[in-house]
Input
Amino acid sequence: MTSGGETIAYALFQDAGRVTNWGNAVGADTQPATGTGDAQSFTVFGRVLAQATPAPEPIPIPSR
Output
């Protein structure tokens, strides 16, 4: 995930134990499905490891 020049590293997984990676290797770490044009639901689990995070964007406060 990137905002400006800052990046937060993360990983996506197919299972709650965070063992099976979500990737782009067909037949290895992707979900088999047929594109029909209908909405499809997939559960995704994520992990963000400890790291120096980017500074948050300042929130403008309207003047009164």
